[in-house]
Write a structure and sequence with these properties.
Elements lengths: L8 E8 L3 H12 L4 E4 L8 H4 L20 H6 L9 H14 L6 E2 L4 E7 L4 E6 L4 E9 L22 E3 L14 E5 L3 H13 L2 E6 L5 E3 L7 H9 L1 H9 L19 H14 L2 H4 L10 H18 L3 H7 L12 E3 L2 H4 L5 E5 L5 E4 L3 E4 L3 E3 L2 E4 L8 H5 L2 E2 L6 H4 L18 E3 L12 H21 L4 E4 L1 H16 L29 H13 L5 E4 L5 E2 L9 H13 L9 H12 L10 E9 L2 E9 L8 E7 L13 H11 L2 E5 L11 H15 L1 H4 L1 E11 L1 H16 L6 E5 L10 H6 L7 H11 L23 E8 L3 H13 L4 E10 L13 H14 L11
The protein binds flavin-adenine dinucleotide.
Length: about 850
């Protein structure tokens, strides 16, 4: 007899996973009055804390912080017994949460989701479990964890070992007794580092196989820190609020001490204090620049290596345990209790797989290139297919039969780490592109769940039934995630953050490193801006406000935020003299720019008196003549001098391999139009006539300038053409002023809030030129005849009021037959591209500038880039 086909169960939302994320999601869905079902592969709640039962398993974020905050009564009732609670205690806590809120009745245990398909007709997800159950739901929420799919060991012969094999991430519930056994542990990441000291207590012989030495810091575990408890007792709500708006999900004041600038004494003091505290966020916050500047990172890394050498008695073992192939923090640093001390025990041995790689696992042990080892048990502490593993494993198929695996073949693509285009009503909690594993995850999980719950409530209130990101919004977010990573040292490491631990996984930086606070703000802004970048549809109407939530480079945004705190007066409200003073004062503390071979100052004769110059010669060979670039500083014809653009000149010198002759010119209001332009032309004539004496190659002369300096550089080219010489090989115009029209869209978009404002440009023009002169091509070169001008490299910045005139000049030059290389400084402002040593994301743009200069001198001897 045929069994009737069971009618699939239908709920509003299916949640996969019953760890921190799934439990809280269920709680919030119920609060909204939505029907929900949680499907969990394990036979109990807990997620990470259900599976990872290996000896020594603990959290590495203080448990006072690694805790739910949504239930204030629970917070009062529950006390963590230690600074870093053990796995059993955290599991008890999650069980209590589930019981306290009666969550279990909506959780299906031992139910592994094997596929999820979006049914376009019904606008429902169809979920299938390994047991064959089918559930239909409107919303599909994956709370499947960032570190929940163990990485299978990619070692030859892994299945051959006859004895017991254990994975730290799938540890037997009854525990393991290694007493009297010869044990191998493969892997020295967090789980290995936590378990090795405890396994060593039982095993008769312990051999640790290490592929990568990892940085680890003593946890100094014990009772929860008294100062933290005091803060919580005094103002728990305030403390949690501060955590939500902190960089990492723990209220830690970010330092502004730069490692490279600090004295030896300050360095040592800060390091020892962090070391004594035994918290990851302290050791990651010793110096403000340790995550971005290799020199600063080396200071911290070397101090940690010193600590390792001081603990481990055998020098060869100590050296093998010292991490040297990655910057500190670019792989997850570990917290330990007696890890390095364990290697001083006579029965514990370290095998460095870089010295002697494993050839094969055998029936009774492990064979390396040099030795055969016999073991009674093997423990794999080999980590996870992080962040994407559980998502793609569950076979999710969205619109048009597109699977997540196919869509993410080149790396994950998400909007806010929460959703992905082509997969309607699909949410990921702590997905790739969100802070997740770089943060205190309890805080990040609550934020994600709250955002999703808020979104579902808004949809219901507004009669909307489907939601999905647009391609534009998603691409913008992916770009922002990569931009944030690119200014750090993280992408240099072969880490699981990059997917590098799983063979064949695309190398993409997976989490969002911009900070929990910045991320929360972005998510809030999306809602505030009417769910920017999301298509919503339903009986309430279809709507989509498309756009990109973060377009600015993260370090540029940081600089602007910092400048805002200084509360400086607007330049245009000052006298010219005071504005010059303010500019000099703000430039006083900036990094000096790269070393160059030689810097000499001098004067050249101008049409109305001497003009000071500074000549930069690149470091290193060849010592002979080089091409010569006459450079003009920015400052709206009113401000600036040889010092103001000194770091940029140094960098242009090193990147181009050319001599840079920076020339000061007469300024308004003392000397108004056309004084600056005439000085510039005179300087170019003089440089051409004196090229040999300056160390230049005759005939290899270019001009460059930034802002108003680019204006006079462009004008000098037109004047040289009209005068029949000198011959100029090229013009590099960085964010140039080329017109006096203050109405283009870039003025409307960027005229306020990005340092160079419309008001300031008006102030500059008023000082420089009478309205009747502003159409003169010597003031507005865009209005001149552009035929026969030298090839141009033009740089424009997205958030610059001058952007459109720069683009217009490039187009007009092209139309006049002039070769143009147009570089768009994506996410930059008028000033940020010149902030050498401050705005790291400007480095590729400045590399482009150097490259543009090189192309002006094709016959010049090619030179290596020094920086
Ligand atoms: C050893 C260890 C220590 C850690 N310590 C810290 C710490 O100190 N601080 C910190 O912030 N973070 C820490 N983490 C990260 C930790 O994973 C998170 O803090 C948090 O527990 C994640 O909760 P979650 O609910 O999002 O995911 P998980 O806890 O991973 O839960 C996901 C659940 O989904 C289930 N699941 C997955 N796929 C399916 C499927 N297809 N069908 C059915 N069920 C499925 C899994 O069985 C699992 O139970 C640690 C991780 C590990 C491994």
């Amino acid at each position: 007899m045929n069994q009737p086909t069971p009618v699939p169960e239908q709920v509003d939302a299916v949640v996969v996973g019953a760890g921190f994320s799934g439990l809280y999601m269920l709680y919030r869905l119920r609060e909204l009055g939505l029907s929900a079902k949680v499907l969990e592969a394990a036979d109990d709640v807990g997620g990470t804390w259900y599976w990872n039962r290996y000896p020594g398993a603990r959290c590495d974020i203080p448990t006072t912080d690694y805790t739910f905050s949504f239930d204030p009564e629970l917070e009062k009732e529950w006390t963590w017994s230690e600074k870093y609670a053990t796995q059993p205690e955290i599991l008890d806590y999650l069980r209590l949460v589930a019981d306290r809120h009666g969550l279990r009745s909506d959780i299906e245990f031992s139910a592994t989701v094997t596929s999820a398909r979006w049914d376009e007709q019904e606008e429902r997800w169809r979920i299938t479990t390994g047991r064959g159950e089918q559930i239909r739901c409107r919303y599909y929420i994956m709370a499947t964890g960032c570190l929940s799919v163990p990485k299978s060991p990619d070692i030859e012969g892994a299945g051959r070992f006859a004895g017991p094999v254990y994975f730290t991430s799938r540890w037997p519930h009854e525990g393991v007794d290694f007493t009297g056994q010869r044990v191998a542990v493969i892997g020295t990441g967090s789980s290995g580092i936590q378990s090795i000291p405890l396994i060593a207590r039982q095993a008769s012989q312990l051999t640790v196989f290490q592929r990568t030495a990892n940085f680890s810091v003593p946890a100094h575990n014990g009772p929860a820190p008294a100062d933290r408890l005091k803060l919580l007792d005094e103002d728990r709500a305030g403390y949690r609020h501060a955590a939500r708006w902190s960089r990492g999900g723990i209220p830690v004041e970010p330092t502004d001490v730069l490692g490279v600038a600090a004295s030896e004494e300050v360095r040592r003091e800060r390091f020892e204090a962090a070391w004594a505290q035994g918290e990851l966020f302290s050791i990651l916050n010793i110096f403000a620049d340790q995550g971005v500047n290799p020199a600063s990172n080396d200071i911290v890394a070397e101090m940690i290596r010193e600590k390792i050498r001081s603990v481990v008695t055998d020098p060869a073992t100590a050296e093998a345990l010292c991490p040297k192939n990655h910057y500190f923090g670019t792989k997850r640093p570990c917290l330990d209790t007696g890890y390095f001390e364990t290697y001083n025990l006579p029965h514990v041995r370290l095998v460095d797989l870089r010295e002697q790689p494993i050839v094969s696992i055998t029936e009774d042990g492990i064979e390396t290139a040099e030795e055969s080892f016999g073991f009674d048990a093997i423990v794999y502490a080999t980590g996870f297919d992080a962040m994407t593993g559980a998502l793609v494993a569950a076979d999710v198929t969205g619109r048009d039969g597109l699977s997540l695996t196919e869509k993410w073949a080149a790396g994950p693509s998400t909007y806010l780490g929460l959703m992905t285009a082509g997969f309607p009503n699909f949410f990921m909690l702590t997905g790739p592109g969100s802070p997740s594993v770089l943060s205190n995850m309890a805080v990040s999980i609550e934020q994600h769940v709250d955002w999703v719950a808020g979104c579902l409530k808004d949809m219901r209130d507004q009669g909307l039934e489907t939601i999905e990101p647009t391609e534009l919004a998603e691409a913008g977010w992916n770009q922002h995630v990569q931009d944030c990573a690119a200014i750090t040292l993280h992408p240099t490491a072969n880490s699981w953050y990059m997917g590098a631990n799983v063979p064949g996984k695309p190398l993409v930086f997976l989490p969002y490193i911009g900070g929990v606070d910045a991320y929360r703000q972005a998510c809030d802004d999306v809602v505030e801006q009417d769910y920017l970048g999301l298509q919503l549809a339903g009986p309430g109407g279809d709507r989509c406000r498309d756009g990109v939530i973060r377009r600015m480079q993260p370090d540029v945004a940081m600089v602007l935020a910092f400048m805002a705190t200084l509360d400086l007066p607007a330049m245009e409200t000052l006298s010219a003299a005071d504005a010059r003073g303010l500019l000099a004062a703000t430039a006083a503390d900036r990094p000096p720019g790269p070393e160059v071979g030689e810097v000499t100052d001098g004067v050249i004769p101008g049409p109305a008196g001497d003009l000071p110059y500074r000549l930069y010669r690149p470091a290193g060979p060849p010592m002979g003549p080089r091409p010569l670039v006459v450079y003009f500083h920015g400052g709206g014809w009113v401000l600036g001098d040889l010092d103001s653009d000194d770091p940029l000149c140094r960098e242009l010198c090193e990147r181009s391999g050319a001599l840079i002759l920076s020339v000061n010119y007469r300024h308004a209001p003392e000397d108004r139009f056309p004084a600056a332009a005439l000085d510039a032309f005179a300087a170019v004539q003089w440089a051409d006539a004196n090229a040999v004496g300056l160390g230049g190659i005759p005939g290899q002369l270019a001009v460059a300038g930034w802002s108003a300096g680019a204006n006079v550089a462009a004008v000098a080219c037109q004047l040289a053409r009209d005068a029949g010489g000198p011959r100029i090989s090229g013009q590099l115009l960085i964010c140039p002023v080329v017109d006096s029209d203050l109405t283009p869209p870039s003025y409307q978009e960027n005229g306020d809030g990005y340092i160079l404002t419309t008001a300031l440009m008006r102030w500059f023009w008023d000082y420089y030129a009478d309205p009747s002169d502003r159409g003169d091509p010597r003031a507005a070169p865009l209005r001149g005849d552009l035929h026969g001008l030298p090839p141009a490299g033009i740089v424009t910045a997205d958030f610059d009021p001058l952007r459109d005139e720069g683009v217009a000049y490039a187009r007009a030059l092209e139309a006049a037959g002039v070769p143009v290389r147009l570089t768009r400084a994506r996410g930059h402002t008028h000033t940020s591209v010149t902030m050498v040593g401050v705005v790291i994301s400007g480095a590729p743009v400045r590399a482009e500038m150097g490259q543009a200069l090189r192309t002006f001198f094709p016959s010049a001897e090619p030179q290596e880039l020094v920086s």
